[in-house]
Amino acid sequence: MNFQSYLQGIKDGIAEIDERELKKIVDAPDGTVLIDVREQDEYEQGFIPGSIWIPRGFLELRIESQVADKSAPVILYCAGGVRSALSARALKELGYQNVKSMRGCFSAWKRAGFAAEVPVVMSNE
Fold this sequence. Notes:
By secondary structure, this protein is of the alpha/beta class. The chain has 6 helices and 5 strands. Strand 2, helix 3 and strand 3 (52-53) form a beta-alpha-beta unit.
């Protein structure tokens, strides 16, 4: 088995959402928790409005403090779709019941021309 077939197997076992479906949720929040699993340098370049930042390497450690209700709808995104798919599988294994990965992720969001926010950096002055 190679990585592509491994990844395809993971994607076959998770639900996905596209950027247009996600845009509807962002525009009319419905209680869905949106999680950005990218690294800090990626996050600082912009993120989807309303998302919570939990880097992929910390997801399993921090998810329960951010999303205690394992039946809550959760959508994960990264830059292109690999880390979010791996994250969706991990959350399913932790007992989260309503998890989706965003197909195409932040790259697709930007290509569609949807707005991104930039984190506020506090000055030490």
